[in-house]
């Protein structure tokens, strides 16, 4: 089968037993790989009601047909599990070199279940996997761990590791991979905590198998044709990285600040791409074989953090740990971002949880005594301390480690009204109020508050009507199919959107045809996307998700944006209800958001 290793590796950490299964071509064609394959494996192998921290939960690492080909942005892998934050299906992707190396093992997916008897790491090779002791690594930061493992396993090996936060089962613990100066972080949903519960410190991959492509000339022609549009479309990303978004989104009135009390941040310029580049840019970093190099390493030349060399905070991180907390100190943001990566924390959930704390302090629902730390709007020193306390579950950090929603439930009967989260996943930096397509997008996202289910990018384009609810359910459906397929190929979102199209169109069908040799059409890819979304929804429905769960944060539904270019925008419950009706109808789901047998049969999921 071209484009695939054709094998799935199942690993039981309790016994150390491994099993190699073949990947049927029928399955591959219907789900592609990555996200789609992981959804199938988790639906089939994780019993309903399983505690995410229980041995029966599975973690899947998967790649897709374009991984380790010549497509720009091909070194991207999916990691998926039942999330300890949402209790639902969750997938997250990351780059670097690990994804290509995983593909070179000849396994399209590795399914990890059970719990190791002691701290361990897993080495996946072309012939299977071996569990090795990691007692010496337990407690260490992600980067130290990865460096130690690459030293131990050889320079061709790649590793992804959890930090102290994952070990402590922080519900939004991440995992990080380092290659040269590039980091690949699987940030969201607390999947690092699932590894921690399994006593699995890291996964190491090593292999040399080549991915065979059905029609190399056709793939080469496609890559050539898209080279210029990709270069043009990624110019700002290549120059500044994602922080370039701070200025335009603030100018549009959609940059959440002070826990959504405003969506304009007066000091945005200080934490935007241009200023950051001017003061801190050290070098560009890139994933394997990607011409975009959207990663930047920063260096702080002077002041309190002088000598710090660290990864640039992404736009989402800047939002969550900056404006949402009223913080405009770029050096504190660089430091906080580095801390989160090293300790293994999702920066978005961390920041949005702290933003809730700021507002709860203001209302007197929490006090300084509760926190044991001086903290409030703009207090970056307190923020840095609380980040460390969270990762180690020290003092109030143990409550922060539960995420914003669970923390709020323990604070005050009305406190969840202050939380910016959907399905308990804290929202990122693309406004649920100022972008109507994201209002319905977040409400219906499998993951909840994720900007990788329905995409914000098309909504920032000139000519897109971001204010009206009209046609937004159809927009969300199409966009969700696009992301599901993209995460199954698995392709970097930046190279996909800027080089190949914002929705499933002919370039993607050409790509799949060239790599696999199948006669895939755009319509078939739309059905693949729909199938994956339905499979994820079935997983969530099995866990009890219904229409009542497809809601937006209270503030988004009840408090209009008070000022700025998007003043007055919000998504009241009746508007959301009408969009949900339309969305479910388009999906062929019933009024409670449950996929109907006829639609499932049409998707061959019956
Ligand atoms: S665009 Fe950025 S994130 Fe995507 S593959 Fe290239 S370097 Fe990696």
CATH class of the largest domain: Alpha Beta
Radius of gyration equals 22 Å
Number of DSSP E strands: 17
Number of helices: 25
Strand content: 5-15%
Characterise the protein shown here.
This protein has 25 helices and 17 strands. With 606 residues, the chain is an alpha+beta fold. The protein folds into 3 domains: 199 residues, Aldehyde Ferredoxin Oxidoreductase,  A, domain 1 (4-Layer Sandwich), CATH 3.60.9; 169 residues, Aldehyde Ferredoxin Oxidoreductase Protein, subunit A, domain 2 (Orthogonal Bundle), CATH 1.10.569; 173 residues, Aldehyde Ferredoxin Oxidoreductase Protein, subunit A, domain 3 (Orthogonal Bundle), CATH 1.10.599.10. A hairpin with a 2-residue loop joins strand 10 and strand 11. The longest helix is centred in the last third of the chain and has 21 residues. The two termini are 26 Å apart. The mean pLDDT is 97. The structure holds iron/sulfur cluster. The site of iron/sulfur cluster has 12 residues, from helix 20.
Provide a compact summary of the structure:
With 606 residues, the protein is α+β, with helices and mostly antiparallel strands. The chain is 40% helix and 13% strand. It is globular and about 60 Å long.
Write out key terms for the chains shown.
6-stranded mixed β-sheet; Aldehyde Ferredoxin Oxidoreductase Protein, subunit A, domain 2; globular; 3 domains; binds iron/sulfur cluster
SSE order and pairing:
Layout: E1 7-12, E2 18-22, H1 25-31, H2 34-45, E3 59-62, E4 77-82, E5 89-94, H3 98-104, E6 109-113, E7 120-125, E8 128-133, H4 142-153, E9 158-161, H5 164-167, E10 175-179, E11 182-186, H6 191-197, E12 200-205, H7 216-233, H8 235-240, H9 246-251, H10 273-280, E13 281-285, E14 295-299, E15 309-311, H11 315-321, H12 330-343, H13 347-362, H14 368-371, H15 380-392, H16 397-400, H17 404-409, E16 421-422, E17 425-426, H18 436-444, H19 472-489, H20 493-499, H21 506-516, H22 522-542, H23 554-558, H24 573-587, H25 597-602
Parallel strand pairs: 1-6, 7-12
Antiparallel strand pairs: 1-2, 3-4, 3-6, 4-5, 7-8, 9-10, 9-12, 10-11, 13-14, 14-15, 16-17
Helix pairs in contact: 1-2, 2-19, 2-22, 7-21, 11-13, 12-15, 18-19, 18-24, 19-22, 19-24
